[in-house]
Amino acid sequence: MIGGYIERLPLAILKGGLVDCAEVWTHWHGPTPPTEQPGLSPFLIRRAFQANGSEAPFSSNDMLGHIAAFGPPSILCVWGLGVSEEVLLACCGSFKIYNSIDVPALRVPFEVSRHFDLILTGSQWQSEVVRSRHPTIPTIIMPIGPEFASELSFRPIDIPKNYDVIYVAAAQAYKRHDILFEALAKLPRSLRALCVCGYGEMIDTLRSEVGALGINVDFIDPPGVPFEEVNRLMNQARIGVVCGIDDGAPAILTEYMLTGIPVLANSQLRCGLQFITPETGRVASPDKFHEGIRDMLARLDTFKPRQVVLANWTWPHSLRKLSSFIGRSAG
């Protein structure tokens, strides 16, 4: 199964036979429809609906018209800032799933969130937040990025390890590149790091920070590179890092691991630390991050990240857990 983290859950549901077709719906704003851009997967139909305005959760007469004409989906997954209550009411017969794909457990108002049949979270504390607002709505800790990892997109390849550390993250402040840079400044200058930035506005700032510290860091600037190239770049590194704190459970956690490299994560990361085990990596506080890098590089042969992900977090495992909730509702 190949696709971005937004695509992989619907692809898993399709491949698992829970539905016979799957679509990805998005909104567009303004007077001009978006240019149609095919996605990575030929198995997903993409539809873009004109939003009524720019305020979230998004309402769309266009989307409501489509639902009225063709009927609601059997399963409706809503991510992030969500859709208006009118859309959910139009899909009253659908099994409705929500995931915030961010640190806040719920990014939609009560009148929207009350309609969901299942809410996916990234951590235990997020589940508790959901239960405090909606005691009767079931939750499952299943962040859609790392839980539906693609073992085909991310895999080991036999190439030289040119970098000690890689960080695949947006060039944005919440990704906390500064923690990596300050850690590298405490280590021998012979260590090489690579930062791959698919998007973000801070690339010039990051380069300036690296120059000021005199550390050895290369950059891949926005708009980034395709998955195949990201996989190759990760295979050139010995370890991957996740430095953020106020970050949702990043898909890159298990994507690193599937390439065979262990992960050093910030111990203050608010969602996703369940993927860090003694065999997949370790955690370190920001002020001890350099010690984490040094320790992991010294014992790379003690980690088995790909094997652990294949045994626990690829899409068949997650789909089995998800199917039990959907089946329970249908029953």
From TrEMBL:
Pfam families: Glycos_transf_1. The keyword Transferase applies. InterPro entries: Glyco_trans_1. This is Glycosyltransferase. Signal peptide: none annotated. GO terms for molecular function: glycosyltransferase activity. Keywords: Transferase. Residues 160-297 form the Glycosyl transferase family domain. It comes from Rhizobium leguminosarum bv. trifolii WSM597. The keyword Protein biosynthesis does not apply.
